[in-house]
Specification:
The chain has 145 residues and is mainly alpha-helical. The protein has six helices and two strands, in the order ααααββαα. The protein has a single domain, classed as Orthogonal Bundle (Arc Repressor Mutant, subunit A), CATH 1.10.10.10. 66% of the residues lie in helices and 7% in strands. Strands 1-2 form a two-stranded antiparallel sheet. Helix 3 packs across helix 4.
Length: 145
């Protein structure tokens, strides 16, 4: 198989895998979609108290509008709070609630078991190479990991 075919197969495989991961993940975590959970996890890892929608969008690699829409849904469910920035009246800030922290704690074992099952047939060496490859692709796309 030539390199161009392999590249096309990898690109298509990553897109297909992303869709399948989302469907799989939506069935694991109760009460929210995989994208919503991923957004909450990113916010918890952003390293800043009450980040703005713009900062979260940049960190997550999606649009501000998409982040706002998901956060409005999460706010309705009680996992996040949106409020005006104290330093910039145009900016919206986000804070995660105690309910979000409790959700992480309650579902940590379930999530870990699911990930363990997902990767159970893949060697550590294969996972390491996959991570290195993904890191290089993300770096090329301007996403720091």
């Amino acid at each position: 198989m030539d390199r161009a075919t392999i590249e096309a197969d990898v690109f298509g495989g990553v897109l297909l895998l992303a869709n399948k991961f989302q469907i799989w993940g939506d069935g694991i975590v109760p009460g929210m979609t995989m994208k919503q959970l991923f957004l909450l996890l990113l916010i918890s890892k952003i390293g800043k108290q009450n980040p703005t929608l713009t900062e979260i969008a940049a960190f997550s690699g999606t649009s501000r509008q998409n982040v706002k829409k998901m956060l409005e849904q999460l706010e309705t469910k009680g996992y996040a709070v949106l409020c005006k920035s104290e330093t910039d009246g145009r900016a919206m800030c986000v804070s995660l609630t105690e309910k979000a922290a409790a959700y992480f704690a309650e579902n940590e074992a379930t999530s870990a078991k699911a990930l363990n099952g997902l990767f159970s047939e893949i060697t550590t060496d294969a996972l390491t190479v996959t991570k290195q490859t993904l890191d290089k692709l993300l770096d090329f796309l301007g996403v720091s990991v």
